[in-house]
């Protein structure tokens, strides 16, 4: 295996270990500290930037390996069609080249795929921690906040009830005055 595919394999192994570390069920306080450090540390940000650049190279390797695999497969099919595979060594050589090309495609493809999985898993875990913090804040503020809102609603209800009672009394007084002024004469057209 060439050096760049060896480095790609080491990157894949590091990604697998990182993923295992991300999904291990740590206590909330430990998880909060670790993810806080990972998301806020400038050193970790520089390392992540370097790794993102390396994924660009892995992507280039992936497309190169994919192209090589298609070319070798086409050559093997052409040789079988032209019946140039009479020799066992030639057939073994084509099979070995095809195997190495496929191995390189899978190696680079899984490395790229796991990088996407790691990014999303980290984002989901960070979002979960923030949601748990918000939940704790709301839970802490909940009982006192609900008591004050209940008291506020009760005061508003009492104020509205007193205004209603005042308006009903004024309406009754005006209705009595109107009845006295009208002296029982009701306009038939209005009724």
* Major beta sheet summary: none
Give the quaternary arrangement of the chains. single chain
Give the strand content: under 5%
Q: Ends: how far apart? A: 103 Å
Low-pLDDT sequence parts: none
Q: Note the total helix count.
A: 4
Q: Taking all residues together, what is the mean pLDDT?
A: 86
- Helix percent band: over 70%
Q: What is the number of strand segments? A: 0
The chain-level structural class is mainly alpha
Q: How would you describe the shape?
A: elongated
Output the radius of gyration: 39 Å
Work out the count of structural domains. 1
Along the chain, the helix and strand elements come as HHHH
How would you characterize the overall build of this protein?
This protein is mainly alpha-helical and 191 residues long. It has one domain (3-144). Helix content is 88%, strand content 0%. It is elongated.
